[in-house]
């Protein structure tokens, strides 16, 4: 189907329409985990917009942000960070200043990439700036502000502020349900985030309940092989492992690894992480099984 659409793109007479079609096709590839295909098209879109609109044009900036997210998902974090911080954020700060919503959105992307690279304190500092900016400019129940609260809470959790993070994440989840609805993707992942924080805080039953619900909803909305579904499945596996349900934990982790491998390939950083987790969980499950059998 996508090959047919790509073939159709080549016969579009208007170059602007062609680029818009390629951008849409790249988005579809990204959602399916076809990151190489998405990156190729996104680079074409960015090249066209740079050449015809200039580096600082809003459409060019959007194209850079889109490409940086794909690079981020592929694990090319240094390339993503370079594009996000030294190009996009620099342009937006020069145009709008720091206290601006567009700048804040770009800062949030930089913060997420920093978090992936292990620079968690820098990520927390940026997320805090983003949250403060959005609080000044947006009403309390605005979806962008809710996400800023959630992101900062997760960053605070990374710094050990578990109780504070739990309070913020619980409020973010309640606001998501109220504003966006129970089955909205942001609501579903807010439930996952609260479940993870509950797990770290030792509330195992609460964590498992939240993560099970998040997994079921992700499967319903996105399907079994979407990145969000895989993430929540492995989080639930960790919670069940802590709860003592070793066999179910190992089964879920294996499913997460198999789906990740199918979508992203053997060499993707997430596939490797899941394989390492699976080795640990299956080793524990095997040891428990041997003890139960008296071997």
Automatic annotation (TrEMBL):
InterPro entries: NLR-like, TPR-like_helical_dom_sf, TPR_rpt
Pfam families from the UniProt entry: TPR_10, TPR_12
Transmembrane segments: none
Gene3D superfamilies xrefs: Tetratricopeptide repeat domain
Organism superkingdom: Eukaryota
PANTHER family listed in its UniProt record: AAA+ ATPASE DOMAIN-CONTAINING PROTEIN-RELATED (PTHR46082:SF6), ATP/GTP-BINDING PROTEIN-RELATED (PTHR46082)
The protein's name in its UniProt record: Nephrocystin-3
């Amino acid at each position: 189907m996508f090959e047919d659409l790509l073939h159709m793109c080549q016969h579009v007479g208007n170059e602007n329409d062609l680029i818009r079609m390629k951008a849409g096709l790249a988005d579809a590839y990204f959602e399916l985990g076809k990151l190489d295909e998405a990156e190729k098209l996104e680079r074409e879109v960015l090249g066209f917009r740079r050449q015809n609109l200039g580096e600082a044009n809003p459409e060019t900036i959007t194209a850079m942000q889109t490409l940086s997210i794909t690079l981020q998902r592929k694990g090319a974090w240094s390339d993503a960070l370079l594009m996000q911080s030294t190009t996009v954020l620099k342009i937006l700060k020069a145009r709008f200043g720091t206290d601006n919503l567009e700048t804040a959105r770009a800062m949030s992307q930089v913060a997420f990439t920093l978090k992936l690279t292990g620079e968690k304190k820098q990520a927390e500092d940026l997320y805090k700036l983003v949250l403060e900016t959005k609080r000044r400019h947006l009403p309390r129940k605005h979806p962008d502000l809710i996400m800023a609260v959630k992101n900062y809470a997760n960053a605070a959790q990374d710094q050990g502020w578990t109780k504070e993070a739990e309070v913020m994440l619980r409020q973010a989840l309640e606001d998501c349900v109220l504003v966006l609805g129970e089955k909205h993707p942001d609501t579903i992942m807010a439930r996952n985030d609260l479940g993870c924080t509950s797990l770290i805080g030792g509330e195992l039953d609460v964590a498992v309940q939240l993560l099970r619900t998040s997994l079921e909803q992700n499967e319903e909305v996105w399907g079994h092989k979407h990145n969000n579904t895989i993430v929540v499945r492995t989080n639930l596996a960790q919670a069940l492992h802590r709860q003592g349900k070793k066999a179910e934990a190992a089964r879920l982790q294996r499913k997460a690894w198999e789906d990740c491998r199918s979508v992203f390939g053997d060499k993707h950083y997430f596939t490797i992480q899941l394989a390492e987790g699976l080795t640990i969980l299956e080793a524990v499950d095997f040891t428990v099984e041997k003890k139960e059998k008296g071997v």
